[in-house]
Amino acid sequence: MSREIVAGVDGSPESLAAADWAAREALHRDLPLRLAHAWRWEPIDLPLIQDRASQERVADAVLREAEDTIARHYPTLALTAEVLSDTPVAALIGTEERAEMLVIGSRGHGAVAGFLLGSYGQQIIADATRPVVAVRSRDGDPAEPPTGHVLVGQLGSPEDSAAALGFAFATAAARGASVRAVRAWSLPALYAYSPASMRLADEAGGLVPYEEKALREALAPWRERYPDVPVTEHVELGSAGQVLLSASGAAQLLVVGRRAKRGAVGPRIGSVAHAALHLAPCPVAVVPQG
């Protein structure tokens, strides 16, 4: 089954920025783009009175505005647009069977960190089985992101980060960009490292060489698969979120992995992804493991 990039649009500047980013990514990857607007009939109580036909016309107008804008800016792009009769979360998740990735808008910086991405966006990222890219607009202008590297966080074992690394290398290859792979590490608390892991660290010459070796091993299969993609490696002491954010200023895309987590109040996206989504200056791709 052929893949496509799916962008959710709702008429906001953020969603138009997301659609613009998705259009350029679709051209980079030689894939079609599908614009999706979620709407279903919801009666509105007084004092606002709208019948179903009026709401339907508004939904169609939102979609057509985005479609016309993208078609005008990218006339060679294979483009489709569809109103999906469902809630925003269910509608976008329902497109995953054919989606290479989902692209959504993000409001970015703000005063209340927990609400910057929006509840719909956080739930889509938490529930998705495909990579989700969050894009913010800059003063309402869907500007071209900086022409920098693709920054990716490598955490845990090679298997833990394989999906994120694979997405980062594929994106860099499609764009003719380089990859900067970052591994953050912390000084172990007493007894935090097993005797076996400490022995491996000793054999590597210390904790820093041990972490550098772990990063090289995680990158090795992707260097082999994408030999034309330049790669730089960076290992730094600190929390993963802080280290990635400090390195994100020159990136055109930040890629982080996500484990499937479920808390007491529903799905969770993880602290590293949460920090990246709300504070990184560039678009952020969250890639589920496995």
TrEMBL record:
- The lineage's top-level taxon is Bacteria
Pfam families linked: Usp (PF00582)
Domain (UspA) spans 1-136, 149-288
InterPro entries referenced in this protein's UniProt entry, alphabetically: Rossmann-like_a/b/a_fold, Universal_stress_UspA, UspA
Question: Coiled coil where?
Answer: none
Family, per the entry? Belongs to the universal stress protein A family.
**What is the recorded name of this protein?**
Universal stress protein
Q: What is the taxonomic lineage of the source species? A: Bacteria, Bacillati, Actinomycetota, Actinomycetes, Kitasatosporales
